[in-house]
């Protein structure tokens, strides 16, 4: 195990000594990012919609944009990010060994990871879960109509267990056809060997693009498992966690308040106190994070609010066309509910 | 002319005759031939159809490939060719990688072409000046802007890892092999321990330790370059294997050779250098090249520790929604296989030529 870094201990003592004083607690990670001039971000080696490099070598995706927003908040330049592609096997070890400052890699937030691995999950940025894809020709509109269906999936994953639970709970009969590799599952489904294909919903949308006729297939509305995906940092630097968490909350609040990358500068003049606090016109919320007062405005201007990020990478502005569903704002039928900046 | 009696010709060697002798010499062989022809027809024809006839060759994005449902998606490879070779290396700095490739190519060609002179000098330059020059060019320094290794990738990183492993493993391996056969107990013990330690762990574990575990044991704030630690790990790992290959060669050299060298009054290093090693290395040349080829293919394991090598960069590209088609992934893998095959087959051909040349000595 890594020894308790002296700098963190010093920061904690300082915080304890001056508790109650409005002085911003310094985060060693943020200080290092400022000193280096770039944020180090651990990302997926390639996951459609979440992280992938384009032909020019620029990374883009939903997970990438969170790193860009953080770089905008801390360094006022969304492009100042160094991406480390990291595999599912080594991601936690790499984070613990300090290879990057934050792991933004479609990682499911579970209790064991949060507690036993010594990670700090920032929040869920995307609520994923297992869904079903069926050919339109079946005329099925709900997973409950899948009685007697043959379902394709991967072997030995929780997907298989979730499927069994769901069909048993709903008293439905089914037959499973399982394969080792994603490509095999998809080929079997495309060749009509099964009536439905099940995996995480975001994966279904990505795989659908690889079908011979993507438009002939629909993803059913039912989500049968919980996969909250979110970025994670190491234990021991709470101020860094605050910066990351409130950056996400600011992006969600911006969507709720109608502040976008296009209108952020006009919104500075808005009389709405919530918008004024978000954009740093009123209050000293940026300063309390050890940043400047327009911290959130910078992220919104350079990367966009949560809704813009979602639509650009996963939603209607992308090839994937994922519906907002549960990832909509709380007042629009979803579960996104960011605490107020006050 | 007429004085020499030629043996009578049996028959005209026409194609029909050749087929009768080689393909249909018996009922069993005829059946095998027919089965083989059917198999070849059933695999090669669809493959050619997929890879060439029905394939998409031009256009932009998935729309270019979607109409070709049963053919390869070559525009994907064409669009990403820069990335496949250089990774994310800055566009403006890519000439530096080209220069390194060119220097390597010229140096290797010089060493391989039998007619060119001054092989020894070129070899020394390739082993001393070239690595330094390549390092400066690739990493930066001496006026060149630095390019962080995070931006390296593709064929470039595959070759950097493979060439480093190959160049470092042969001399290290020879030393270890000599050490293992040494009469000095400490040298022998250390050599055995080193070889067995590195051969006892899988390369993937070694890379994981080097890249992810090593920093945990480092004092706070001290970082080591991940690529450098991976290169060292690969070099040490392959040298352990090389040591055993060379030891096999050393053991195959007759005892008489050792005694003859000693009788000539040659000391240990001289007798090894001028008598034993040249024979031993020639004997184990096929195994040495086998090791090199294995190492070349093992380099794709660096994708585990976050480097997008040839394999990794193609897999990453597959995730681009703008290129999601039924054939993108397969096209990438077929292309990748072809690149690896070309590189490995060239190594093997060169080794064959070298063997033939060296065997000239035995024919006397």
SSE order and pairing:
The complex is a heterodimer of chains A (342) and B (364).
Chain A: H1 6-17, H2 28-36, E1 39-43, E2 52-53, E3 59-60, H3 62-75, E4 81-85, H4 91-96, E5 102-108, H5 111-116, E6 119-121, E7 126-128, E8 130-135, E9 149-154, H6 158-169, E10 174-179, H7 182-190, E11 196-200, H8 201-208, E12 217-219, E13 227-234, H9 238-257, H10 264-267, H11 273-278, H12 285-288, H13 295-302, H14 306-313
Parallel strand pairs in A: 1-4, 1-5, 9-10, 9-11
Antiparallel strand pairs in A: 2-3, 5-13, 6-13, 7-13, 8-11, 8-12
Chain B: H1 15-22, H2 27-53, H3 61-65, H4 74-79, H5 81-86, H6 94-112, H7 119-139, H8 154-180, H9 185-199, H10 203-217, H11 226-252, H12 255-263, H13 268-283, H14 285-298, H15 310-318, H16 328-363
Structure commentary:
The complex is a heterodimer of chains A (342) and B (364). With 342 residues, chain A is α/β, with parallel strands linked by helices. Chain A folds into two domains: 6-127 and 228-332, Periplasmic binding protein-like II (D-Maltodextrin-Binding Protein, domain 2); 130-225, 3-Layer(aba) Sandwich (D-Maltodextrin-Binding Protein, domain 2), CATH 3.40.190.10. Chain A has 14 helices and 13 strands. Chain A has helices at residues 6-17, 28-36, 62-75, 91-96, 111-116, 158-169, 182-190, 201-208, 238-257, 264-267, 273-278, 285-288, 295-302, 306-313, and strands spanning 39-43, 52-53, 59-60, 81-85, 102-108, 119-121, 126-128, 130-135, 149-154, 174-179, 196-200, 217-219, 227-234. In chain A, a hairpin with a 5-residue loop joins strand 2 and strand 3. In chain A, helix 3 (62-75) crosses helix 9 (238-257), helix 3 crosses helix 13 (295-302) and helix 9 (238-257) packs across helix 13 (295-302). The radius of gyration of chain A is 22 Å and the shape is globular. Chain B has 364 residues and is mostly helical. Chain B folds into two domains: 74-89 and 150-363, MetI-like fold; 94-146. Helices cover 71% and strands 0% of the residues of chain B. Chain B has helices spanning 15-22, 27-53, 61-65, 74-79, 81-86, 94-112, 119-139, 154-180, 185-199, 203-217, 226-252, 255-263, 268-283, 285-298, 310-318, 328-363. In chain B, helix 8 packs antiparallel against helix 9 (185-199), helix 11 crosses helix 13 and helix 11 (226-252) packs antiparallel against helix 14. The longest helix of chain B is centred in the last third of the chain and has 36 residues, at 328-363. The two termini of chain B are 29 Å apart. The mean pLDDT of chain B is 88. The A-B interface holds A 1-3, 5-7, 42, 44-49, 51-57, 82-87, 89-90, 93-94, 96-99, 183, 190, 206, 209-212, 318-320 and B 62, 69, 79-80, 82-83, 87-89, 91, 148, 150-151, 208, 211-216, 220, 223, 226, 303-308, 312-313, 315-322, 324-326, 328-329.
